Structure formats: structure tokens, C-alpha cells
Amino acid sequence: MPHRLLPLSLLLLSLTGALGAEPFGIDRRTAWTDSHVVGSPEPPSPYKIRLAFPALVFDQPTVIARAPGTERLFVGSLTGRIESFENRRDVPSTETFLELEPLGKDRNGRVVPRQVVGLAFHPDFESNRYFYAFTRLRTPDPVRSRVSRFEALPAKAGEAPRADPSSELIVLEFPSIGHSGGALDFGPDGYLYISTGDGYGQNDPTASGQDLSDLPGSILRIDVDHAHPVRPYSIPADNPFVGLAGARPEIYAFGFRQIWRMSFDRETGDLWAGEVGQDSWESVYKVERGGNYGWSIKEGPQWFRPERAQGPGPLLPPVASHHHAEARSMTGGYVYRGKRLKDLYGAYVYADWETGKIWALRYDGKQVEWQQELQDTSEDIAAFGESNDGELYLLTHRSGLLYELEKRPPEELRPQSPPFPRLLSQTGLFASTRDHQPNPALVPYSVNAPLWSDAAHKDRFIAVPGDGRVEIVSDGKWLFPEGSVLVKTFSIETTEGDPSSRRRLETRLMTLQSGPEGREQWAGYTYLWNDEQTDAELLGKESLTKTYAIRTAAGERQKQWYYPSRTDCMICHNEKAGFVLGLNTWQMNREHDYGAVQANQLATLDHIGLFTKPLPKPPAQLSRLVEPSDASQTVEARARAYLHGNCAHCHMMGGGGNAEIQLTSRIPVADMVAVGASPEHGDMGAPGSLIVKPGDPERSTLYSRMATRGDGRMPHIGSLEPDAEALSLVRAWIEELPR
Fold first, then answer.
1. What pTM value is reported for the model?
2. Rounded-to-integer distance, Cα 458 and Cα 331, Å
3. What number of other Cβ atoms are within 10 A of residue 420's Cβ?
4. Helix (H, G, I), strand (E, B) or coil at 379
5. Per DSSP, what are the bridge partners of residue 231?
6. pLDDT tens digits for 108-124?
7. pLDDT tens digits, 630-666
8. How far is Cα 187 from Cα 259, in angstroms, rounded to an integer?
9. Does residue 715 have a cis peptide bond before it, meaning omega lies within 30 degrees of 0?
10. For residues 471 and 479, is the Cβ–Cβ distance under 8 A?
11. Where are the alpha helices (DSSP H) in 104-190?
């Protein structure tokens, strides 16, 4: 459809042609002053988060713990460092408590840190100075997990505590190429509890979850105060499987996929744990001695592989489960026993790593009496911490910040007025929704390496309010003003190969609004088009799958379309990726069809004054991604561009992807942690596979995950069908890599 400024564009085209200059796609900017996309369709949450220690920022933190006898908190990270700081809001900085030396390098010579994922201080830390760390060791082979005891150096008055790296005593170690657990905690009985995970990635292929002969898939319970003649710990006599033939006596409970954080209620002694699910469910458990929690026969409340052999005992259900429409990676929390949040006293508070949602529940021993979402944040909550007086802290991984909950004041709980638009026609984004004619203020755009969306056609628009401007921070990061809305309409051909048969399915909005501590945050919404194609209605928080009939030369086929939940949107549009995926210099430096004018987008946006500063160089001298379909470019450049556009928003440093791989196109192949690297989540049924095995796409899990429709598919959200052209491209790239 010609742009709404077509006459001006034509005029400009003739003038620039006469002057010998390049044309612009738009002559001048129209101010967007009639936006109704404000606030949220949901009522205000009863709680919000605020920064607990505003001056502190950590690098890839994973765990927070307290040490008996001190008023300090300790944070461990994937960098191999543990830092400590005084527990006061105005603390200016942290001190290094322990720095672990890397144990090796990867195949490309890159130093690989020991990743600290669990941390617990001995109950008698004041006298024995012992603490325990759970670390992941990715080099040298085999990939494994380790629980070690360390000793703090004698404290000096006025100085921060420090630990002695040479004091390491390996307590236990076990192989784990995938989910390895990582939670450590001392129980009220004085024993050390350890969560191990099933040790793999998808489907528990070795059936560790129900196998008592190995450590994975369990919570262990050991006595670290009394060494055995052949190991630095002993087995408590009342452990449930002591004396059972073939069972590891360390096991306290089993049937877990991946317990990510567990804690003891300081008042009752109950053990609570959050479990990361696979296909559909995230779960919360109150763990009992000897309990069998079902994996991998069940996934939370749902059957998973019911034909598998069951370990001893009945399959115990979770206390609570959350479907993947609202949660994706559970983070266990604490039963709140502080004084500041009186309404939450005695409630179990927990969260989700990928979605940032925080919940609380009360359980009477038989059923959940009360459950509530406390807040829907944009943070990836990696862990909860507890102060000596029972107050809670929330640790975020990508931003490296520590938050605390606070009750929302009554004046913020009033219903929004006017209400959030329920129809697309009410948003102020379209001059004619029926004709899909945008408001004259909207700017159309396209990208170099678009996300694969099951062969859908996409129309994209930028809506920036008033005279707002976009700041180019770097080639990969643009900052938008509050109130900005990014619009994308998805259409499919109901007759294959006939563009005139396109049917609009949905229009997605990404909106930028104020968040906690005054920080702006993005939120995603989906509007579902009606059958008449006259308007679209706001979809609720949940996802939706619909089936459409597609006419083909051979007859008719059924096409499924997945409408994402609001949670799904923010998994890809995450903080580390800058929330906005396609609007950056790499993606936008290209020619766009504005109707009668083909023009460079960066030059056009610069011309209409959309940027806070003029472009530093002409577009031809600025960075850009190649187009994966551009046969004039190298296979490597095209394949890397596709992976960048489709995968790198999660698979970058700190991006939230469960693998360590780095798929941004600007880093060297040797630094991708993919070529020649062992898979972290299983071999996809092809023994001997690597993530990328040079010359062998069939034994490259990156390729096989793209190709499958079943378990382990990547991307795991946003698409139901493999991209045939991309598969051919990635296959060709892997085949040409030197063996």
C-alpha cells in the first residue's frame, strides 16, 4: 500500500532526482498526538519492586546467601566470583570474598570460568568459617558439577571477610551435561541439602529422574560434619533409601527435572522448591522425606512418559503449577517470615526467571488456600535471598540488580482511566482499521534478517509520540521515548502462492511504559483479527492456537497458528537484547519500499528528525546485517545473519538461553561457544553430536533443533514450522566448516 505521504514523497523524489541526490522515503514527520495505548489492560498489581541496594550491580549473578554471625550478604555469579557487602540500603560497593581460578580452556582456547550457582554457609560459620559452593565445570572434560567446601580467612576488625581459594575440599562431583540443579541449603537438622537436576537437557533420556542408583534428578542430604573413611561426608542414618539395594543413600527425595532454588521455612522447617519444567508446566513442591515427584513419568501435574519404569513410592503432585502461557523457568523462593510485609507473613513467595512474574501462596498441608500474582515485572529473577530478620531480596541475572517487594499504595490501585483499548480501532494507530491504513504519524519499516514466523507476511510500523526522538546508543541498541509503540501485523495466504488471498491474523504491539524505580519497561500485546477483517480484539494474558485451512495445488492443508501470551512476548523481547529486536542500526540499514520511493531507512529517519542526533556517517559507511536471502553474500555471512536475527536475542551473553552459545553475528566463529562444543542439553538422539559439528549437520544439535517439530525444537516459542530455506542455508554453512 502506498505510504500516506506519497504525494510529498513523489515531490521529493522529483526534486532530489533533479539535484542528483538520493531520495528519502518520507518528506517530513507527522506528530503522533492521539495515542490511546497507555497503561495496561490489567488491574494494578498489589505489590511492586524497588531497588534494595541502588549502588550495586553484579555481573551474571545467580545466587544470594547470608552468613551466620554477620550482617553481610554474599552473591555468587557465573564469572566464578563471590562478592559480599553490608546489608544496608546505602552500601556503596562490594568486596571480593572468593575468586575461583578457571580450570581450563575450551576448544578454541577461551578461558572458561567456574560457574558459581549455589552457595550456603555452615550453621557454625562463626566458629569453623566453612561455607559450601556448587560450581559447574565445563572444562576440562567431562562436563560436571561439583560441591566444594571452602574456608574463610580469620576476620580482621574493620575489614571485609575473605576466603582462601586453596582451602577447597571437594565434597562430591558428578557428570552433568544439562540440568545440574545447583541449590544448596542447610536444614534445621544441620545436614546439607543439594539439588542435582536430571543431568541432561530434554526428555530425561537416561531416565535419571526415577533411577535411585545415580545422583541426578534428586535432592541429596548429607552430613558434612562427620567424614566417612573414603569420602568427606557421611550418610544420615534416617535417610529414606539407606539399605535399599542399588540406591544411592545420599538421596532424600527424587523425581525432579531441575530444582532451581530451594529453602527451608525458618519457622516450620518445611522444605520448599521450585522446579523448571520442559514442555508445559512449572511447579512448586513442598518436599517430603523419600518423596517421588514424578519426573520423567510426569511433568508437574501432566503425564510426560507414563510408560517409563517408576521408582519407589507414589508420584506426589506439586503444591502449585503454572502453565507455560504464564511461566517458563521457575525460581523457588522463601516462606516470608519478615515484619515489613505483614500481609505476606507465612506465605511462600516465588517467581519465574524468564517472565519476571512473582507469586505468593498459602498452603494448609493439603491444598492451596490462597494464591496471588504479586507483580508482573520485566526482570529475570535468578534467586531469592533472605536477611537475618527474614526480609526477602530478589536477584536479577541480566541486569545484576537486587530488588525487594513493597506494597503498592492505595492511590496506585485505582482503575485506569481511560481504560486500555480493547479494540485495535481504539488505539489511535490506524486511520482505517478495516483497510489496515495506518495513522499518518506511523512510519513503516523492514529489517534485514527478520524473525521466521511460519511463512507469514508482516507489516511493520513505528509510532513515536509527539516530538519524541530515538537515541542511537550503539549499532545494536536504540532507545525509544516513553509512550512509543511498535506495530506488527501478521497475515497468511489462504491460497498458497496467491498474495491477494492474504488474511490478517493478528497485530502485535510492543509498548514502552514507566516501570519500577522509574525505569521504563516494554510490554507486549496481541490483537486478534475478526473473520470480517474489519477490526481486531485484544487477546487476554493467555496464548491461543487456531487452525486455518490453506488451499494448495494438491487440495487443502491445515495450518496451525500460535497467538503468543503476553509472557511469550517478553521471553524474546528481553532486557539483554534491548527489548526491541529489529529496530537497530544492523537491522534497519537497508532500502525500504515506501510506495513509489525506494530509500534507505536510516537516511529517511535521520531526514525527518526521528533521531536525537544526526547520523555519524552516511548509511553506506554504517554497520548492517546481510540479508540471509542475498545470494551475492557468503554462505557464512548469510547463515550468521539468520542466526543473529532469529536466535541471538536469547543466545547471547546473559540473554537467558539455557545454552552457553553466543549467536550474535559480530563475534568470531571461535567465540560462539558452538563450533566444536559439546551440547549442554542432550544430543537430540544422534550420539556423538556437537552443537555445531563441522562438516556434519546431522550431528549438529543447532541444526537438528531447527529442523524438528517435536521435543527440543528451537525456537521453542513463536514458531510451529521449520524454515526450509534457513535449514538449507545453515546446513550449507556447517558443511563448509573445516573439520
1. 0.81
2. 35
3. 17
4. coil
5. 228
6. 677 889 999 999 999 99
7. 999 999 999 999 999 999 988 886 665 666 788 999 8
8. 16
9. yes
10. yes
11. 125-128
